[in-house]
Amino acid sequence: MNKALKIVNFFQKNKIFVLFLFIILTSITELLLFTLLQPLLLYLSDISSTINLPYLESLIGKKSVDLKIFLIIFFLIFTLRASMAIMVSYKKHSLIEELHNLISSKIFSKYLSKDFQFYISNNSSSLTANIIFEVNKFCYYVIDAIIAIVAEGFLIIAIFIYLVTVYFEASLMLIASISLFFFIFNKYYKMNSTKMGQLKTIHDNKRLEDLQRSFYIIQNIKLDKLENFFSKRFKHNTEISSRSFFKLQFMGEIAKPIIEFASLIIISIVIFLFYIYFEASKEQIFLMMSLFFISLFRILPSCNKVFHNYNALKFHQASIGIIHSEIFNKKSTNKNFEFNRKSINEAINFNKSISLKDVSFSYDDSQK
């Protein structure tokens, strides 16, 4: 992720700062919405006869409001939050669009400035893949994933802050249990995502190479009847690339029901412990259950997005390395990727001489 952030900061430092500012403001408005939940639940369950908002006392001199005023305040904060979310979305896609234009143009200009020896030493299909495929992956998957992780991360932190201020012990138990589960769950998928991303990058380059080579020597393919050979080769690379992407998508989708089930069990255990061992009243248990389950339905989609986008970063690790090396003129530090690329080149090139034996041809009705 450090390499990705270096590339982004190299181009758009100011826009990143503004975007993160809007993300923080959106999280604050989300936190304000959650602070309205407890007073509303207390009022609707007849535990309290008034709706008390403590932070209003410093503004209007009283902390209790009637239901109409409360609904107006809720509507205003919700509208503000929706406006902030729209601005975050606009700023994010504007940044990605601008980055895509700048990075692709910069890499293409660098390639054009190279001497002729550079084009002899490098495969044109790899250079084309870097400008088209790798830049697209970096901008529309990597950068989008980083922004999503930051945005959802701030939202999760804001909700947890609220829960800790309301139910300190229970929230700490909940946070510790969910964090442990996420650590174990993520550990299992971390290396697989990186490996699958490397495979997809390698075989995407192979597919592009096969296409360029096939169309370039189409006459030879037709004359030598090699259509089946090139079709099988292209199909093989396509299947490996598609299978890698399928595994990433599948892992991201099954994470949601697993996380939901685990979170439900953890919250139920925490509430049960408080009811049995801390002798909490039924009103406290009702309020705790209401807040935790409302928070759960807000946090879980964010947790799922964080997990899915984190795996996407690992999946596209090779693309990050390629773009970073092309922008800053550095060799890729991804040893596995470099090894595989080297193997590909060795598979299609040769350095030894070729000898022809027992060759015969005819010319002017005479055999030589």
Brief description of this entry?
With 368 residues, the protein is mainly alpha-helical. It has helices at 2-35, 37-44, 57-60, 67-113, 116-121, 124-166, 168-216, 218-224, 227-276, 282-315, 317-328, 335-348; strands spanning 51-52, 64-65, 362-363, 366-367. The longest helix has 50 residues, at 227-276.
Q: Can you walk me through this structure?
A:
- There is one protein chain.
- Helix content is 84%, strand content 2%.
- It has 368 residues and is mostly helical.
- Helix 1 (2-35) crosses helix 11 (317-328) and helix 6 (124-166) packs across helix 11.
Task: State the separation between the terminal residues, measured CA to CA.
Answer: 65 Å
Strand content: under 5%
Overall body shape: elongated
Order of helices and strands: HHEHEHHHHHHHHHEE
The percent range for helix content is over 70%
Our Rg estimate from Cα atoms comes to: 29 Å
**Major sheet strand order:** 1-2
What is the average of the pLDDT values? 76
Structural class by helix and strand composition = mainly alpha
Total number of strands = 4
- Uncertain ranges: 333-348
Largest sheet: 2 strands, antiparallel
Number of helices: 12
